[in-house]
Amino acid sequence: MDVQAFEHLVNPLGLVPMVIEDDNFAPYQRGQVAGFPPEEAARLFERQSAVPVGENGAPVIPAWAPQDVGLNQSAVSNVEIPDNWRDLHHLQQIRIAKDLLGLTQGDRVPMDVAQQAIEAELNRRGAANGNQV
After folding, report:
1. Domain enclosing residue 9, as ranges
2. Distance CA 49, CA 60 (A)
């Protein structure tokens, strides 16, 4: 994992805010937000124990992240993304992003995060097919 990418996410304290995704990561609890130095943040992200979050507390969808981290790639590849996805109602865009991210109906995804997730997946698909998106 590229630690430099996490260095761009540090807060004024020099820590990367991360939401804990692992049920067995004492002393933290799933859903709790904690700050970690960039190297530790990268390691936790690789282990799928935590995900970086933005200022609003929503998970950051890093376009630089390996596409297999935290995602079932075969399930993601089956998610249909229409060519006119930007013209869809915002709730339809969020539903596509939730499917891509493996989230449930009750999970909250801000619109900007949803669009980032869709764009990242389209870029991944384009790269996998040898296309530039």
Report:
1. 3-52
2. 14
